[in-house]
Every structure is written in C-alpha cells, then in structure tokens.
Predict the structure.
Amino acid sequence: MIKGRAWVFGDHINTDLIIPGRYLDDYSSKNLAAHVMEDADPEFPRKVAKGDIVVAGRNFGCGSSREQAPLALKHAGVSAVVAGSFARIFYRNAINVGLPVITCANAASRITPGEEIGIDLHGGWIQLPSGERLSFSPLPDFLIRILDEGGLVPYTRKRLQGR
C-alpha cells in the first residue's frame, strides 16, 4: 500500500512543466528534484514531502521523452503518479526508474489537494479519506516486480545475478 498526500494538477502536464528544460544541463537528480513542477506550481519543489502522490488529469507527461521528468519526481520524494492517462513514453520511463504510475480516469476530479490517499497496486484501488474507493486496472505482475526492485536496471541486474 502506498500512502501519501495528494498534489492535484489538471490535464496535459508536459515534461517541460515537470522539469523545465533550462535545468537539463545538470545531471544531478537532487538538483533536478529541487526544480520539479516549479512551472506548474512554484510551491511544489519546496513543499513536496517524501511519500506525496501526484494526481493529474489526462495526458500526463506529454511532450519530450526526457527520462529526467520521472527521475525528478521520484527524487523529490513522490511515491506515485495517478493520472487519467499518460503519454506512453513517460509511462514507460517512470516504470523504468521505479516510479509507480496508475491510470485512473476520474482521480483528478475526485481527489482533493492535500488529502491523504492510499493506493493498492495489487488490488487496483485508491482509498479516499471518506472511505470511498476509486478503481483502476491493477498493474501487471511483471511491472510490479520491476517497481519492487526500484526500476528496470536493478530488476535486470538481480535477474542476471540469479542465472
């Protein structure tokens, strides 16, 4: 179960809003995290806390294919991203770096900013403080195994060492 405080955004949050291009010459994950989402919400980089959850509308992560976008979110402490839909390359980049991404069509309209929510990746539901549950299609087991290992590289290393 993933639990955290919700940060709610709208539709079409692109990779330039997630991590502005002006910071891409710095390859430090810590420095990228210091600027994550600042163009969408200037308070976010200063107030995001470990375990917080980003909730958004449709087409989250559209734009360029930069891997720095999910990395910046993860290194800022974001434990998961829930959105109505994702740009496919962002979705796969997030899984590859070990950041859970959940597609839930009505989450952004049902979750209040700042409230504590819980996500059951295996069960396919989001628990709201009211007791209501929002359903989503659970992630396939192979993706959960990749997430459990911290991303595709650690997952692959572990599999290769097990040969």
